[in-house]
């Protein structure tokens, strides 16, 4: 290998790149093989059971990714919010929401310009596709905004893990055979991500304000975050097989794919060109203006997450891989952990672009004249509804019904687009994912000064804390040294007293018998010799008198 590298340096660099990006290469190969196998197996006209078996590995891969979402969102949001103060959290949240609104509006405008210039819809296409079959459905943008508030502030945190609040309309017929819709507030299956995000942000902000008391809990969630990311890394090694399975099964499951693609070719081209123009022009320009770095290097490091979003058609499913890619792009984890979970729920700029193009396309097919006011209505309604429908499943359907109602276009024709939505949905999901990632980079650039000030203040607090601990340690050392000196002095005085007692024990009275037989007490002095042999020798020599 070394000889090949020395002989062909270009091959050596390619081999090194493949070694460093083996997972990215394998994921990209999975996408290509999925498309290839799907096209090759279509002529065999496989039955539904066989297609289900081919889709099974992809289904398991999707389930594993979705399994990681909830614990990852909870751990990342709590650790991210706890690492910032309350003022900083509010500032970042405000900048994030403003960025998402502006970029969704920009994406809708891009779609509007393209659909007017290309004009993909005409009555001939309407004749080829036939009548639409979408049933009437009562929708209201006001109710969507109200449901947004209800889901942001859940009344039961545990219930929010598997149920979402929503307004339902029950269709009834009164005595006069008039269709009446009765509005009721209920719940539907699905994780209330908005409510969990709100609770985690609030919990993390308060937890960070507790200081030392809350530090063990913050460390606990940091460990959870690291564990989940390691699990995601392990799951990603199954992505080539899983992604290939998902794409292959989806291609095999679409009926009359060639005819549908040919009939709606102009619509697909308009939507996809708008999505990729937005991705490779406007997003890159926004990144360069605010971050002042090469935007295409940033995009390349997100390529693995881009492919995952394309294969799964879910920004939330790609969220764990997006976190991993943002680490490679060296975006401050405090910002990415804050922005990405919110963006995966709220930001739908790709969907806003698609709904704008699709709504005007349906109006063009039905020869409905639109003026400047109608175009403005479509753009503003698509932007507002894309944010309001953050917690709504099949959001694109709900959005299109709202926009079509605003311009009096036939809602039945929505069903004509579902045959190609499986492909367009994947393209717009990549737009949503990239919008979240670029949003985190822009918010970090806008918040850099505040982050530096906060880091400086935190460093000073740590320094003061260390100095305080050092002073306490020095004080304890002095106290311990003083007690030892006192103890030593006491012991030495006691030893001196004991030695004096030993040197001169004192005078004792010893009895003595007199000649007459009587007893006489005689004082007796016992002198203990304490001089050493050296002193005795000096005395003999006359040096000591």
Give a description of the structure.
Strand 1 (163-173) and strand 2 form a beta hairpin. Helix 13 (265-291) packs parallel to helix 21. The chain contains 23 helices and four strands. The strands form two sheets. Strands 1-2 form a two-stranded antiparallel ribbon. A two-stranded antiparallel ribbon has the order 3-4. It has 545 residues and is mostly helical. It has helices at 2-7, 9-20, 22-41, 48-82, 86-118, 123-129, 141-152, 157-160, 193-209, 215-236, 239-253, 257-263, 265-291, 295-301, 303-312, 315-328, 333-346, 349-365, 372-388, 395-406, 418-446, 448-503, 533-541, and strands spanning 163-173, 179-189, 506-513, 519-526.
Using DSSP, what is the number of strands? 4
Arrangement of strands in the largest sheet: 1-2
- One letter per element, helices H and strands E, the order comes to HHHHHHHHEEHHHHHHHHHHHHHHEEH
Helix/strand/pairing category? mainly alpha
Largest sheet: 2 strands, antiparallel
Helix content: over 70%
DSSP summary: helix tally: 23
CA gyration radius, whole angstroms: 40 Å
Oligomer: single chain
Instruction: Note poorly predicted spans.
Output: 1-5, 502-532, 534-545
> What's the overall geometry?
globular
- Average predicted local confidence, pLDDT: 79
Binned strand content: 5-15%
Give the terminus-to-terminus CA distance.
Answer: 97 Å
């Amino acid at each position: 290998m070394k000889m090949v590298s020395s002989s062909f340096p270009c091959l050596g660099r390619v081999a090194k790149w493949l070694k460093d990006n083996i997972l990215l290469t394998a994921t990209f190969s999975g996408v290509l093989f999925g498309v290839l196998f799907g096209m090759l197996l279509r002529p065999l006209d496989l039955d539904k059971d066989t297609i289900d078996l081919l889709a099974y590995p992809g289904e398991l891969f999707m389930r594993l990714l979705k399994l990681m979402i909830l614990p990852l969102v909870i751990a990342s949001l709590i650790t991210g919010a706890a690492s910032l103060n309350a003022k900083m959290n509010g500032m970042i949240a405000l900048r994030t929401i403003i960025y998402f609104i502006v970029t969704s509006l920009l994406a809708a405008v891009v779609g509007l310009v393209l659909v007017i210039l290309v004009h993909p819809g005409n009555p001939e296409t309407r004749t080829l596709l036939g009548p639409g079959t979408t049933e009437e459905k009562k929708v209201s943008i006001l109710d969507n905004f109200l449901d947004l508030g209800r889901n942001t502030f859940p009344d039961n945190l545990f219930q929010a893990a598997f149920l979402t609040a929503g307004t339902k309309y029950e269709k009834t017929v009164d005595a006069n055979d008039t269709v009446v819709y009765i509005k009721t507030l209920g719940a539907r299956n699905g994780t209330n991500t908005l409510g969990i995000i709100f609770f985690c942000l609030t919990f993390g902000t308060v937890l960070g304000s507790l200081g030392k008391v809350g530090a063990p809990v913050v460390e606990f969630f940091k460990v959870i975050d690291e564990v989940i990311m390691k699990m995601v890394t392990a799951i990603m090694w199954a992505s080539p097989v899983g992604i290939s399975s998902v794409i292959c099964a989806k291609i095999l499951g679409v009926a009359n794919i060639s005819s549908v693609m040919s009939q709606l070719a102009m619509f697909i081209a308009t939507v996809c060109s708008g999505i990729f123009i937005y991705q490779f022009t406007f997003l890159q320009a926004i990144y360069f203006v605010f971050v002042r770095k090469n935007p295409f290097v940033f995009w390349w490091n997100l390529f693995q997450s881009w492919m995952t979003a394309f294969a799964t058609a879910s920004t939330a499913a790609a969220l764990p891989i997006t976190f991993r890619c943002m680490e490679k792009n060296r975006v401050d984890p405090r910002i990415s952990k804050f922005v990405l979970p919110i963006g995966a729920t709220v930001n739908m700029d790709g969907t806003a672009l698609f709904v704008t193009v699709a709504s005007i396309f349906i109006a063009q097919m039905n020869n409905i004249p639109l003026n400047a006011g109608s175009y403005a209505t479509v753009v503003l309604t698509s932007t507002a509804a894309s944010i309001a429908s953050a917690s709504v499943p099949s959001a694109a359907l709900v959005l299109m019904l709202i926009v079509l109602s605003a311009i009096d276009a036939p809602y039945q024709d929505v069903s004509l687009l579902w045959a190609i939505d499986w492909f367009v949905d994947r393209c717009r999901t990549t737009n949503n994912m990239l919008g979240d990632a670029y949003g985190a980079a822009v918010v970090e650039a806008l918040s850099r000064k505040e982050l530096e000030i906060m880091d400086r203040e935190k460093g000073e607090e740590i320094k003061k804390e260390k100095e305080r601990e050092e002073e306490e340690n020095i004080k304890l050392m002095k106290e311990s040294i003083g007690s030892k000196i006192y103890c030593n002095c006491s012991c030495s005085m006691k030893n001196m007293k004991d030695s004096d007692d030993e040197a001169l024990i004192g005078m004792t009275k010893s009895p003595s018998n007199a000649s007459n037989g009587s007893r006489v007490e005689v004082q007796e002095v016992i002198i203990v010799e304490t001089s050493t042999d050296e002193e005795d020798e000096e005395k003999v020599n006359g040096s000591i008198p």
